[in-house]
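Please, structure for the following, as tokens.
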Amino acid sequence: MAPRRPKGAGAFPKPVESPASKPPDPAELYAALDLGTNSCRMLIAQPKGSQFHVVDSFSKSVQLGSGLERSGRLSRVSMARTIQAMRICQQKLKRHRVRHMRLVATEACRRATNAAGFIQQVRRETGLKLEIIEPEEEARLAVISCAPLVSTRTEQLLVVDIGGGSTELVWIDLTSVPQRERPRAIMRLHAGFHPPESPFPAAKVVDWISVPLGVATLRDQFRDVEDDAARFALMSWFFEEALADFAPYKDEQARAGFQIVGTSGTVTTVAASHLGLKRYDRTKVDGLRMTSDQIDRVIRGYLEMGPEGRRKDPRIGQDRHALIMSGSAILQALLRCWPTDRLSVADRGLREGLLYAQMSADGVLEDAPY
């Protein structure tokens, strides 16, 4: 079955990788930096109607959480690697004279006993002020970034953000929201999962969970298992066990009107492999809908390749080959648990959510229809 993009997949937030027609006014620029367990990523963007243009970007695998499972601390090597990446971000922010920014750190810094010292070191050596955000905010920002990919026919929505150190799941009930308003109702969650009374129809957050298992931490849990297929099966089972307390998991759900949106490097890599892309193309991946059979076929292909084959596969890439099987194990567990045969692929996440939240709070976005 040919993959389809949902109506509205190109809607805001749409990080268009093209510059504005003239040099942007620094007062109009916003920056968002996401320092995760595995990667340091930043976007600098300018509001444009109900969307935004990306003026500059940065992404680097820094492996900040390397060794964290064993020691409970960030290693000197990983901190040095990360600060080097942060210096590049600082140079970009300075060059564009960005005034509005939010720079956040997630699971690795939440867990590390020496995180406070690391944050101080970043401030001292780069001048950048990182803040460690709580899992709920991380989940909420990922959700609002995916709002344009939500079908107007969706009544029950599960948004999954597979990170390096944790995986956030948010279950949202949209049955009380008129169909045309459903993507916009998701956007309004930027005010919180339980916002104050409003005249607008509200999306109801049924439950959410932050599982302290991401692609890096899950891999590290089973690093000592030598057999590739056995390690994959154990990782998938172990992740599913961690979902036992997630409330919607316990109830039988109707297949009709249910949608899963997945945002992560794992999901976009699986999509790129399915499409046979030798060079990653965001415009072909973001908004793609894959069937569970298509996803299973890609994952089986990864297993047949073995570690050496995955390392050489250009569709997976050098930064992802060591993490793709733990991410695939999480993805397979999710599709096993809930009644859907499709997954919507989102090449968007925390950075886009951070940009939207800042721009929305400042009132610089138009409230255009989707």
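DSSP finds 13 helices and twelve strands in the chain. The first helix runs from residue 68 to 71.
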